[in-house]
Design a protein that fits this description.
By secondary structure, the protein is an alpha+beta fold. The protein has two domains: about 130 residues, Arc Repressor Mutant, subunit A (Orthogonal Bundle); about 40 residues. Helices cover about 40% and strands about 20% of the residues. The strands form three sheets. The protein has a five-stranded antiparallel sheet with strand order 4-3-2-1-8, covered by helices on one side. It is rod-shaped. About 15% of the residues have low confidence.
Amino acid sequence: MNDEDVDLVLGNYTWSVGARVLRRVGQNSEGDRTNEIGLTPKIFRLLTCLYEGRDGVVSKEQIIDFVWESKPISQESLSQLINRTRYLLEDKDKRILVNEPGIGYSLFFGEQCEGKQATEELSTLSGNIPNTTPPKVESTNKPKLTFSVKYIGLILLVAISIVNVWFSGRTLYYNSGFLEVIKANPYPHIAMKDDGKLVVKIDGNECTYDKAQFLLQCQ
């Protein structure tokens, strides 16, 4: 069988290799053109290039050389062409034109054989396309956050307890000194003369304190 005689199932469409149109799956009447979608020259060459390299991954350089015939292009040209082709094929999940990071692209398709419905081929295609959705990873941030909050709360509780103990000890210390002053006896060696002067005995010596002159005289 020649490549031109092969009908591929590309998502919701069928494509006869070598044809410049796509057709909705299940609507293959020969005379009905209303369900056909034309392919631009570059989209046609892109699909042809990927189909011819169907046994592996087609590198970006090979695609550019085939589609643009080695003409210089901008860096965005290939990605823009891929996006336009995916939009045309309704390839929202990127399961038909599959990107191989750092390498190139692959074309995933089914073949529509004689005597079988296109819907059966579409079902086969869906089963063969790998699911590229990354597995869900359980987040471990919440337990770590809970542990951190408990740890910080414990530190604050210990710090507050230390401050309370320090203030309590300081209060007891000053309270003890205050009680000693209150309970102390007056100095026993002080007497007052008739003229208002104070007489103080210091180490057996009698000293007179003159309030007016702020003078203490000892004999």
